[in-house]
Amino acid sequence: MSLLLNTSVARIERSAQGVDAVTLLQDGTSRSVQVRGGVVLASGGLNRHAALCQTMLPGANADWCPAAPGHTGEAHGLARSLGAHYGTGGDSHAFWAPVSIRTRADGSRAVFPHFVMDRAKPGMVTVNQAGQRFVNESTAYHLFALAMQQQNHAGQGGPAVPAYLICDAEALRKYGIGMVRPGATAGAKSLQPFLADGYLTQADTLEQLAQKLGIDAAGLQASVARFNGFAATGIDTDFQRGVTAYQQNIGDATWTGKSPNLGALTQAPFYAVRLYPGDIGASTGLATDADARVLDGQQQAIEGLYAVGNDMHSIMGGVYTAPGITIGPGVVFGYLAARHAVARARV
Predict the structure, then answer these.
(1) Of 58-62, 138-142, 233-237, where does mean pLDDT reach its minimum?
(2) Of 5, 172, 259, 308, which residue is least crowded by CB atoms under 10 Å?
């Protein structure tokens, strides 16, 4: 088996019997490779395809996407030229997570997905630009980011893009926040780079923090006061934070409060990072059959052409049922595609 690096697929060729060759480009050299079993598309999906993102992911910004740079959807264009089409009926064209963004010293951009390490922990709260909570901070990251978008388009309650993940000094020390690792304390040298480049905002009071962030100070103070009351009782009557096993699992099992997800923000200084809805993987992809064969507009298989991973339309219908929801189907349908392609090569 040969692995070709720095190589792109320029064309997929199809005869009456199905896909039978691909044209590859490598360092300015073109070569044609004959296909016996089939071609398996596993290019990562359409997340960075500019035109498709405008129509399928309105309001999303490519700078907020933590997916790999190669997820450009170019392979989809080749498949669609053979009659392939996208699946339909999903709740969302992508899977999502709240992300924070930092510009590195070399000018490149780091995008950090807030999966489970901070936002569900005691001493953490998320607010919109009116300083108000709008989401259960312990919910699944896909639902969290969808709530950000929904709040942003609702036209009431204040925009939520960006939203603000806020914590007190004790929560920062115990859990970190975003790219800031646990153990950091006020005045520590480890915090200075994050404060200097604006990734992290610090203030001695909630009012000062709101002023620095440009959000409503009275709203933030009221939201934190109400949240601190929930922490005292262990019951979040506004968003039911911490009521499920999943939410409790990403809280702090060692926390001595009444809920592993609820802890008051009391210890100054206070900190914040800005959150954006980042698309972490495409849900909409090429329609396929049970063997991962790509289907044409008449729902007939394009023989010899397969799609797996995020190139394949998600069997979950745009619903994020659990972490790894793209990995599991990718492994299963990768196996099914390979098995079918091998059988086809033997005919």
Answers:
(1) 58-62
(2) 5
Instruction: State which of 256, 278, 300 marks the end of a domain.
Output: 278
309-341 exposure pattern, b = at least 16 Cβ within 10 A, e = fewer: bbbbbbebebebeeeebbeebbeebbebbbebb
- Quick check: 282 and 316 in contact, CB under 8 A? no
- CA–CA gap between residue 220 and residue 177 (Å, rounded): 19
Residue 218 lies in a domain: yes
Tell me how far apart the alpha carbons of residues 84 and 76 are, in angstroms, rounded to a whole number.
8
Work out the angle between the directed axes of helices 206-213 and 217-233 (0-180°, nearest 10). 130
Residues 145-186 have pLDDT tens digits of 999 999 988 767 789 999 999 999 999 999 999 999 999 998
Instruction: Judge contact between 47 and 326, C-beta under 8 A.
Output: no
| Tokens found for residue 26 | 């490598």
Under a CB-based contact definition with an 8 Å cutoff, are residues 117 and 316 in contact? no
Q: Total structural domains in the chain?
A: 2
**Which residues touch 227 (CB under 8 Å, ≥6 apart)?**
125, 133, 236, 262, 264, 265
Final residue of a structural domain among 242, 262, 278: 278
* Helical (H) or strand (E) element with 51: helix 50-56
> Distance between CA 230 and CA 241 in Å, rounded?
10
Contact 287, 322 (CB under 8 A): no
CA 124 – CA 131 distance, rounded (Å): 14
This prediction has a pTM of 0.93
**Single-letter residue type at 162:** P
Tell me what pLDDT residue 124 has.
98
Cα 256 from Cα 239, distance rounded (Å): 21
In this structure, are 174 and 292 located in the same domain?
A: no
Residue 85 carries which side chain, given as an amino acid letter? H
194 lies in the same domain as 210: yes
